[in-house]
Amino acid sequence: MDDYLVSVLANIGMFSFIALSAYLLLLTGEISFGQQAFFAIGAYASGIATALWGLPFALALLIGAAAGGIAAGLVGLLTLRTRGLYFAMATLAFAELVRLGLQQWVYVRKIEGEPVGPNGVDGFRGIRYVFENNIAPAEFLLIIAGLLVFVLAAFAVAERGRLGSMLRLVGADPLLAESQGIDVKAVKVAAAAAAGAVAALGGCLFAHLNTFVEPRNFDIMLGVHSLAYGLIGGLGTAFGPILGVLIDVGLLESVRVFQGYRMIVFGGLVALLLVFMPRGILDETRLRWLAARLRRAPQHHAQA
Amino acid sequence: MIAFIQSLIDGITIGSAYALLALGFALIFGVLRRLNLAYGSSILIGAFAGAAVFAQLKSGGWAVAVATIVAAVAAGVYVERLCFWAVRRGAAIASMVSSFAVWMQLDELLALLFPGRTLAFPALVERSVFELGPFQLRTEYVVMFALAVALMAALEWMIRATRFGLAVRAVTEHPEAARAMGVPVARIAFWAFLLASAVGGAAGYLMASAEEQVTLHSGMALTFTGLIAMMIGGIGSLRGAVLGGLLLGVVETLAKAHLGAWHEFPVFGLLFLVLVLRPGGLLAQDFAARDAAALRRV
After folding, report:
1. Among candidates A184, A201, A196, which has minimal Cα distance to A75?
2. Closest approach of chain B CAs to the CA of A140, in angstroms?
3. d(Cα A228, Cα A270) in Å, to the nearest integer?
4. Are the CB atoms for A111 and A52 separated by under 8 Å?
5. Number of CB atoms found within 10 A of residue B65's CB
6. CB contact under 8 A, A263 and B105
7. Which residue among A172, A216, B54, B97 is buried most deeply as judged by most CB within 10 Å?
8. What is the pLDDT confidence band of residue B298, given thresholds at 50, 70 and 90?
9. Which residues are within 8 A (CB) of A131 and not within 5 positions of it... i.e. 6 or more apart?
C-alpha cells in the first residue's frame, strides 16, 4: 500500500473513535460539543507514558483510556442535572478549559539530550515510540484497525443486548426508563465515562502516529465534526459514525479535485442530506430494510 | 479601584455588542427551539459585504451599514430555508448539524472570495479618547454602546408592543398553543429568524467599525460569543441574553486586564460553573427546561 493511502486510512481509523464517542452519548440523548477534551487527555496521557516514563505502548493505551474515562465520568457526574443544549455547552466549556490548560501546562524533561514533554502552546514534541520501535506505518494501521474492531464489537454486543435497549430508552424517555427500574443516573455517568475512554483511545493513537500534538488540535471544530459524523452516517448503528468519517475524511479530504472547494461541496451536500435523511444515511428504517434484503437474498439464490 | 471601574466600563461597552449577538441567538432559539451554528458566519458574510462596498466607494456611511445588514439577512434567509425550514419538524439536532455544515461552507466561500482574509472596515467616528473624571473613554466604543442600547430599546419595544412581537412571544412560550390561537407559527419563525439576522448584522457592523477591520477568523468567535452570552443568561429570556452579554464583556475585560496569559479561563470557567450549579442559566425560567428538552429529541 502506498504511504498516502495508509495515512488516509489511519486518519479515518483515528477519527472513528471520537465519532463513536459522540455517537454513544447521542444514544443516551445527550449532545456533546466536548469529546475533543478526552481525545486530548488520551493523547497527552499516553504520550507522557511512552515518551517521558518509557512505558510500553499497550500500557500507555490503558493509561490514556483510563485517564479519558475518569475525566469524562467526573464531567458526567457534574453535569447530571444539565440537559440538552445546556449539557452541550457545559461539555464545550470543559473542553475549552482543558485546551486552555494544556496551553499553559509545561512538563518537559531532557531525554537523551532532547527536551521532551508538554510545552504549553508549543505543544508536545517527541512522542517517538512508533519510530523508535520500528513500527511500520502499515503495522500501526493494523493496530488502529484492531482496536477499532474491538470497540465496534463492544458496541455490537451492547446494541444487540439489554444494554443497548437500556441506553436508547434512557435517551428517548428518562422518566419511563426510571419507572422501569433503570438507574438513569448510573447509566448516564457510565455512558459518559465509556464515551470518554473511547475518545481517549483515538487520542492515544493520534499522538503516537503524529509524534507531535498541540493544544490547537483539540479545538471546538474537532468536537462539532465528531458530532456531525454520526448524524451524517446515521444514528441506527455504530457503523453510522464510521460511514460519516469515511465520507468526510476518506472521500472529500483525500480526493484532491475538491481542494479549496471541499467545504462548499461537502457543506451543501450534508445540509441537503439532512433534509431528506434527518437521522443520517444508516438510520433505523434503512437498517431494517437492509437487514431484510440481506436475509432474503440467499433464498432467491436457492430458488434460482 | 479606579482601574477596576475603568475595566468595568470597558467591559460594559464591548458587552453591549455581545448582548446584541446573544439577542439574535435567543430570538432564533426561542421561536425554533433549534441552534443556529451558522449565525456567526452569516454575520461575517454581512461584514465582508460591507467591507467590499467600502473598498469600492472608498467612503463609509450608510451604504456600508446597509450592505452589511442586507447581506447578513440574505445569508440568514439561505440558512433558514436550507437548515431549518426544509428539515423535518422535531429533528432539532439535524438542523444544528446542518447549520454547522453551512457554517463551513460560508467560511470557505469567504476565503475564496477574499484571499487576503482581512479587510479594512470604515470607522463610525474617528478614533479618540476623552476623559470623564478619572476615567478614559474611547469614543468609538461609546458610540457603539449608544447604538447598541438604542437597538435593544427598539427591539424591546417591538417584542413588547407590536402584534408581531406578541406572536413571537406566544410562539416562544408555547408553539402548539400559539398555533391553536391562529398564530402562523412557521411564518413568524421565518420573520423572527430574519430579524435575528438583521440584529446580528448590526452587531457585526458595530464591532467591525470599532475594530476598523474584519477577519475571516471571527466567524467562530461571533457564534460562540453569542451562544455563551445567551447560555449564561438562560435561554428562556431576552433580558437574560442582554445580561449574559454584558457580564461576558465585563468578565473578559477584567480577565484581560488582570490575568495575563490566563485571561481566557474565566469565561469558560464561569460558563461551566453557571451550567453545573444553575443548569438553566442565571435568569432561568420555567419553560427554559422544556426548551432545553426540545433539543434532546435526537
Report:
1. A196
2. 31
3. 9
4. yes
5. 21
6. yes
7. B97
8. very low
9. A211
Q: Could you give the CA distance from residue B291 to residue B186 in angstroms, rounded to a whole number?
A: 17
Closest CA to A92 of A31, A170, A45, A19: A31
Q: Where are the domains of chain B?
A: 2-294
Within an 8 Å CB–CB cutoff, is residue A279 touching chain B? Answer: yes
Determine the Cα–Cα distance for residues B48 and B168; give it in Å rounded to an integer: 30
Spatial separation of the C-alpha atoms in residues B102 and B2, rounded to whole Å:
45
B42 touches chain A (CB under 8 A): no
Q: What digits encode the pLDDT tens for the residues A112-165?
A: 888 888 999 999 988 888 888 888 888 999 999 999 999 999 998 888 888 888
Q: Do B105 and A279 touch (CB under 8 A)?
A: no
**One-letter amino acid identity for A192?**
A
Residue B252 pLDDT exceeds 50: yes
- Locate cell 481525545: which residue? A39
Look at B105 and A267 and tell me if their CB atoms are within 8 Å. Answer: yes
Looking at the complex, does the CB of residue B35 fall below 8 Å from at least one CB of chain A? yes
Q: Hey, what's the cell of B229?
A: 452570552
Please say whether the beta carbons of A148 and A16 come within 8 A. Answer: yes
Q: Which residue of B has its CA nearest to A274?
A: B94
pLDDT band, residue A90 (cuts 50/70/90): very high
Using a 10 angstrom Cβ sphere, with 0-12 exposed, 13-18 middle and 19 or more buried, the burial of residue A276 is: exposed
In order, the DSSP letters of B212-238 are: TEEETTHHHHHHHHHHHHHHHH-TT-H
Nearest by Cα to A96 from A229, A206, A222? A222
What gap in Å lies between CA A38 and CA A91, rounded to an integer? 11
What dotted CATH number matches B2-294? 1.10.3470
Rg (CA), chain B: 19
DSSP structure class, residue B88 = P
pTM equals: 0.89
All residues of chain A having their beta carbon less than 8 Å from the beta carbon of residue B95 are 274
Amino acid at B65: A
Which DSSP category does B261 fall into? G
Strand B129-132 and strand B135-138: the pairing is antiparallel
CA atoms B270, B274, B275, B280: torsion sign? negative
- A96 CB contacts (<8 Å, ≥6 apart)? A220, B264, B268
What rounded mean pLDDT belongs to chain B?
A: 87
- In which residue are the cell numbers 471520537 written? A18
Q: How far apart are CA A185 and CA A166, in angstroms?
A: 12
- Among B77, B85, B87, B79, CA closest to B105: B79
State ipTM.
Answer: 0.86
Q: Closest chain A residue to B275 measured between Cα atoms?
A: A90
Q: Which domains does chain A have, with CATH numbers?
A: 3-303 (1.10.3470)
Q: Residue B33: what pLDDT? A: 83
Contacts of B250 (CB under 8 A, 6+ apart): B7, B8, B11, B12, B15
Q: Is residue B287's pLDDT more than 50?
A: no
- Which chain B residues are closer than 8 Å to A218 by Cβ? none
Q: Using CA coordinates, name the residue in chain A closest to B97.
A: A228
B14 touches chain A (CB under 8 A): no
* Residue A135 identity: I
* Residues in contact with B116: Cβ distance below 8 Å, sequence separation at least 6, in sequence order: none
